[in-house]
């Protein structure tokens, strides 16, 4: 099964209509796709990966293998409520927390700032293309996410270490993403990411040549009245290879009021922050009851 590949170079020529149609199909039928010729500085991408890998090896690897997670696995205790991952979260917008994270490399903050500035432009461009494909104003999704302070942007930095008993645990359990547009800079050698498509798990290959892997989250599904769905995904682990994942989330502002575009009709509205509170306790459950709960909480009847 060949994952859709959106070549940004094709958006400015005679193949624009074909490329836009491919993007629309990817958002409607897949919920994920790859992006090439995206304009992000590839040397900067390599530097981000190098800094993250170095930080993990020096500061996080030993701590992970000495944590409760490997101990529970060795004792063959129940692992259904845990993930085989070493991760931390960096907030970028509207405020940064990078100075609060211990033992980061000296130039990590500056490098990530440069990287995120470019990545936000890519996310905004994707938001514009999606809006255009849906027949909305070009800046519709951007404006919906903006709130009073601009969109929320953050990055989950994760390593999925080598696992002695991969059959007993997930790197990350099955879930959809709570937010908007997710831009993944992932390992170029070690696989593990899988998405559900038509009832079957699709293995996402490592990202060769620094292509970006993109998926849409729950808020895009709501804004588009279900036209663009958030896809269920998971991370598998292996005995060989430690997988790198740097996932940047272009999300609504916490106070942004989320509702479907009037042109697309969807009987609900809610604050993204309220959705996140519900998501925190139901992340690894089906998303449909979450949507229904938000409808009922705002005085709407389930449909």
UniProtKB/TrEMBL annotation:
It comes from the Eukaryota. Pfam families: 2OG-FeII_Oxy, DIOX_N. Keywords: Coiled coil, Ethylene biosynthesis, Iron, Metal-binding, Oxidoreductase, Vitamin C. GO terms for molecular function: 1-aminocyclopropane-1-carboxylate oxidase activity; L-ascorbic acid binding; metal ion binding. Its EC number is 1.14.17.4. Residues 149-252 form the Fe2OG dioxygenase domain. GO terms for biological process: ethylene biosynthetic process. Gene3D superfamilies: B-lactam Antibiotic, Isopenicillin N Synthase, Chain. Pathway: Alkene biosynthesis; ethylene biosynthesis via S-adenosyl-L-methionine; ethylene from S-adenosyl-L-methionine: step 2/2. Residues 112-139 form a coiled coil. InterPro entries: DIOX_N, IPNS-like_FE2OG_OXY, IPNS-like_sf, Oxoglu/Fe-dep_dioxygenase_dom, Plant_2OG-oxidoreductases. It catalyses: 1-aminocyclopropane-1-carboxylate + L-ascorbate + O2 = ethene + L-dehydroascorbate + hydrogen cyanide + CO2 + 2 H2O. Belongs to the iron/ascorbate-dependent oxidoreductase family. This is aminocyclopropanecarboxylate oxidase. The lineage of its organism: Eukaryota, Viridiplantae, Streptophyta, Embryophyta, Tracheophyta.
């Amino acid at each position: 099964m060949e994952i859709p590949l959106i070549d940004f170079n094709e958006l400015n020529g005679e193949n624009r209509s074909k490329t836009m149609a491919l993007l629309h199909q990817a958002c409607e039928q897949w919920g994920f796709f790859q992006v090439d010729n995206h304009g992000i500085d590839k040397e900067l991408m390599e530097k981000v990966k190098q800094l993250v890998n170095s930080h993990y090896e020096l500061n996080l690897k030993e701590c992970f293998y000495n944590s409760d997670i490997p101990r529970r696995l060795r004792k063959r205790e129940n692992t259904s409520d845990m993930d085989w991952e070493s991760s931390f979260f960096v907030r970028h917008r509207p405020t940064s927390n990078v100075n609060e994270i211990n033992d980061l490399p000296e130039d990590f903050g500056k490098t990530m700032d440069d990287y995120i500035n470019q990545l936000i432009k890519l996310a905004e461009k994707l938001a514009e293309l999606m809006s255009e494909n849906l027949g909305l104003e070009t800046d519709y999704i951007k404006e919906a996410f903006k709130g009073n302070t601009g969109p929320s942007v953050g990055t989950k930095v994760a390593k999925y270490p080598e696992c002695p008993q991969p059959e007993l645990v997930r790197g990350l359990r099955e879930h959809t993403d709570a937010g908007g547009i997710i831009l993944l800079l992932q390992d170029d050698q070690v696989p593990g990411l899988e998405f559900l498509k038509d009832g079957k798990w699709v293995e996402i290959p490592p990202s060769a040549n620094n292509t970006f892997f993109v998926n849409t989250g729950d808020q895009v599904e709501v804004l588009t009245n279900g036209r663009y769905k958030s896809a269920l995904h998971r991370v598998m682990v292996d005995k060989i290879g430690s997988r790198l994942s740097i996932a940047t989330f272009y999300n609504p502002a916490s106070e942004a009021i989320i509702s479907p575009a009037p042109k697309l009709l969807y009987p609900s509205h809610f604050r993204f922050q309220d959705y996140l509170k519900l998501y925190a306790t139901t992340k690894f459950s089906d998303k449909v009851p979450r949507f229904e709960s938000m409808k009922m909480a705002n005085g709407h009847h389930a449909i």
